[in-house]
Structure of Phosphonopyruvate hydrolase:
Amino acid sequence: MAALRRIEALREKLRTLGLRPAVAMAAHNPLSAKLVAEAAGFDAIWASGFELSASYAVPDASIISPSTHLEMTRAMGEVQSLPIIADLDTGFGNAVNLAYAIPKYEAAGVAAIVIEDKTFPKDSSLRVDGRQSLVSIPEFQGKITAAKNLGSMLVFARTEALIAGLGQAEALKRGLAYVEAGADAILIHSKQKTPDEILEFCRAWPNKVPLIIVPTSYPQLSFEEISTLTQGKVRLVICGNHSIRTITTALRRTFKQILQEGGIAGVESEIAPVRDVFNLQGDAGMKELEDKYLLK
């Protein structure tokens, strides 16, 4: 029942036209997911393949195993109540591979999956000179249909046509074909440093199915500006990698300061106190169990 509530909550966010789109923040483990929920303002958690790969210090190129991805995604859902949007990249292979994955992610309580129309193994969309080859439209439609037939999760179809340099016409053609196959939303992606390419696509989008963007490369727009400039067509914005990038900066700063100062005293006022970490770990809940069930 909790999983169905999360699915419906996310579906309602996509239906609602407000002052800004819904916003999903990236996470890569249960602690980062819990901190997203603690911020009390995000609408969903993006279980980011890029962030998970980075947390294992390997490229975002279908290297992390499906079982690792699944278990981390499940764990993120267990420690907080926001809907989880699972970044499944290409779906671990073809439509058959995806078909085997769908019931597992459904059982893990995932509210939505995102699959992209690149070939397997994928390459990061923002990688300089990356391999950005796409599968055929009918092949990707088969993946969408499999996902819709085999689960109740929302299915967000991501086209990499602009990333691959195929142009607006191809991006629109693919987006509309994916809607025809049953996609609940279309994620349109760009690596241009300005939002012009994305805004052009949004203005031309003729369908009522909502759009999703990941404005990593063009961060200039506020959420309200995105809603205004796209006439409300963009209903979800994904902050795609901000957790792992923040952690990388913070760890480097703290490690450098400790080495420069020759001790840990100087960083104490700048890092979370141990009691804060205990709270995030659910220490109070464990204390209740100890008081109730352990012999004294």
The chain has a mean pLDDT of 95. DSSP finds twelve helices and eight strands in the chain. The chain has two domains: 2-241, 248-293.
